[in-house]
Amino acid sequence: MSIKLEHVNYIYSPGTAYEKKALSDICLEIPHGEFVGIIGHTGSGKSTLTQHLNGLIRATSGTVWYNGENIYGEGYDMKKLRGQVGLVFQYPEHQLFEVDVLTDVCFGPKNQGLSPKECEQRAAQALRLVGLKEKYWKSSPFELSGGQKRRAAIAGVLAMRPGVLVLDEPTAGLDPKGRDEILDQIAYLHRQSDMTVILVSHSMEDIAKYADRIIVMNKGQILYNDTPKQVFSHYQELEKIGLAAPQVTYIMHDIREAGFDVGVTATTVEEAADEIMEAVKKRRGIG
Ligand SMILES: Nc1ncnc2c1ncn2[C@@H]1O[C@H](COP(=O)(O)OP(=O)(O)OP(=O)(O)O)[C@@H](O)[C@H]1O
């Protein structure tokens, strides 16, 4: 069970004056159940890449495999794929369009052919999972706050019970509290199920906190595809392309410069604190 991209290239408006190569020779495998972070600056190709994962856009050349099947193969069921690889768009407005939240969240399961009763059950469960209170279920999606709209959009995808949840900047425009709530909820869902989560973000801090693996995109190519520790060990190269490693990486660098024997690959404050404690103990000859 996995997603695999082989030599994927994508060109917008080929053969016109607006031609733009957005992806160059992307080779990538995401095993089932992983929490993957995709990071890169504006225009690096993150959204274009994620839209290939559920067949929303078709590679100009190259192949996408889902669970060992070529999604461009003859007779491949794209509709089924879209239920299995759920994509939450960068702007929730792009996927909320029904008269009320509950009807909206029912849309996906209805499309999958479930009965109205099953759809409502799935929708109610998904809305509870994302923490959207019942008093909002009969509201128009457009009356909701930014954070509530995100939750409704995520619920709409979860109601289809996807094997893969792809979230394109799910916290853009939210305040820090709203951002943490949504990301913690997603991390909780990931722990509770065997769902693969692919999170596109601008924030190294967020990615470092949640992802097992980080894909760094630059100019339509994959620059790094590795564990957070390995990726952040290239913090100087990341800076050169305008991406900062998490702050904790720089703090550890300064502590190391001050003569303490710490690494520079801690990805969380907790990990850094443990390393500093060990280094201080070592220097003082304790333990
Ligand atoms: N519909 C389109 N037509 C033409 N070019 C496009 C289109 N969508 C994106 N592009 C271009 O393709 C490249 C990759 O864009 P993409 O949106 O995938 O990047 P991104 O990393 O997701 O950016 P952001 O962080 O701003 O969302 C950019 O140069 C962008 O301008």
TrEMBL record:
A Pfam family of this chain? ABC_tran
Tell me which SMART domains the record gives.
Answer: AAA (SM00382)
Query: What EC numbers are recorded for this enzyme?
Result: 7.-.-.-
Enzyme class label: translocase
Which part of the chain is the ABC transporter domain? 3-244
Residue ranges spanning the membrane: these are: none
Going by the UniProt record, its keywords in alphabetical order are: ATP-binding, Cell membrane, Membrane, Nucleotide-binding, Translocase, Transport
Topological relation to the membrane, as annotated:
Peripheral membrane protein
Instruction: Tell me where it resides.
Output: Cell membrane
What is the annotated quaternary arrangement, including any partners? Forms a stable energy-coupling factor (ECF) transporter complex composed of 2 membrane-embedded substrate-binding proteins (S component), 2 ATP-binding proteins (A component) and 2 transmembrane proteins (T component).
> What family is this?
Belongs to the ABC transporter superfamily. Energy-coupling factor EcfA family.
Report the function annotation for this chain. ATP-binding (A) component of a common energy-coupling factor (ECF) ABC-transporter complex.
The family database entries (PANTHER family) matched by this protein are listed as: ENERGY-COUPLING FACTOR TRANSPORTER ATP-BINDING PROTEIN ECFA2, HEAVY METAL TRANSPORTER
Q: What protein is this chain from? A: Energy-coupling factor transporter ATP-binding protein EcfA2
What broad taxonomic lineage does this protein's source fall under? Bacteria, Bacillati, Bacillota, Clostridia, Lachnospirales
